[in-house]
Amino acid sequence: MKFGTKAIHAGVSPDPSTGAIMTPIFQTSTYVQKSPGDHYGYEYSRTHNPTRTALQQSIAALENGKHGICFSSGLGAIDSVVKLFNPGDEIISTNDLYGGTYRLFTKVFERYGIKFHFVSMADPEQLSTYVNEKTKMVWVETPTNPMMNIIDLEAMAAFTKKHGLLLAVDNTFASPYLQNPLDLGADIVMHSVTKYLGGHSDVVMGALVVNDDELASRLVFLQNACGATPGPQDCFLVLRGIKTLHLRMERHCQNGKTIAAYLKNHPKVEKVYWPGFEDHPNHLVAKRQMRDFGGMISFTLKGNSLDDAKKVMESFELFALAESLGGVESLCGHPATMTHASIPKAEREKVGLVDSLIRLSVGVEDAEDLKNDLANALSKI
Ligand SMILES: *Cc1c(COP(=O)(O)O)cnc(C)c1O
């Protein structure tokens, strides 16, 4: 099946007891057994729930993977990945990382004796110096947030295979529509389902997808043993969101392209970060590993004034100033004061994350209206 067909049909089948075409919300914590141990495959909803089963199968299919495992948030999913390891083990991670992941790694798991190396992944071979017998996994995000750098997943997978490491990819920014890391050699794909998969800014959820049966059973064990599982109503909402994932993504990409080009030609804009531009440093890698370039765009203002950036964001009427991304509505964020405020200014500026940098999650509204909103807001400075 092609992607759009999978988005609508994979993992779901009409309810056998009623014929309901949509998977019901199985709002139950427990299941009656005919005789001790003789049940219908469901015993307790932390362990299994039919609405969650359908969603896990759907997400696995979208990532061309065998096993989908859902969690109550993206960070809940990452938490279970790190719990595969033991004190003394080491993980190499991208340095341009989602702030919550960085916090989980450094403020929680370092206390339990797991060591993290945060490094630039422009060239996988540079990672060799961090690999020793304790190294277990490489953690990658691509495109990165908010600088929109692209990491070559095939090259990274060749590197991790050579060194016997697991490769885990946070695929949240791309969504399974744009990029399927398992096909490129990754071992674990992670999603903040909260973003594009859910797509309507009404659910917080996470997911992992893997092919290896043994790795899957260890992660399913952790899902049940640690208990960060999503409720059935949330699973239903995401199943509903997924049915239009391909349609939404097509429009996110189209609008992203229009808005990126508009900003690039705007006299008050200094720099636009979007992997679809031919002069983006990783454009060719993006073209090879992604179906299209998405609707996530960052840009900076000429003069690099924090006050100007604030004025622009306060002047938007459509772009809502809010954390998160990937919903149908357009959002804007200010990494220097919001998501990346905990990173020292000098460190931020080294990677280009300056005070005037604004991040857009371009939604699926009419592009003309979004352009007008940007024109109006930029006219205020
Ligand atoms: C939002 C996000 C997360 C965390 O997911 P939650 O669902 O908020 O827990 C992880 N990685 C990336 C790239 C994100 O955007």
UniProtKB/TrEMBL annotation:
Q: What class of enzyme is it?
A: transferase
Q: Protein name, please? A: Cystathionine gamma-synthase
Please list the GO biological process terms of this entry. Answer: cysteine biosynthetic process via cystathionine; transsulfuration
Source taxonomy: Bacteria, Pseudomonadati, Bacteroidota, Cytophagia, Cytophagales
**Keywords attached to this entry:** Pyridoxal phosphate, Transferase
- GO terms, molecular function: cystathionine gamma-lyase activity; cystathionine gamma-synthase activity; pyridoxal phosphate binding
Tell me the residues on which N6-(pyridoxal phosphate)lysine occurs: 195
Query: Which InterPro entries does the record associate with it?
Result: Cys/Met-Metab_PyrdxlP-dep_enz, PyrdxlP-dep_Trfase, PyrdxlP-dep_Trfase_major, PyrdxlP-dep_Trfase_small
Which Gene3D superfamilies does the record associate with it?
Aspartate Aminotransferase, domain 1, Type I PLP-dependent aspartate aminotransferase-like (Major domain)
A single GO CC term for this protein reads: cytoplasm
Q: Which Pfam families match?
A: Cys_Met_Meta_PP
Organism from which the protein derives: Algoriphagus lacus
**Domain of life per record:** Bacteria
Cofactor(s) listed in the protein's UniProt record: pyridoxal 5'-phosphate
Write down the EC number. 2.5.1.48
Which family does this protein fall into?
Answer: Belongs to the trans-sulfuration enzymes family.
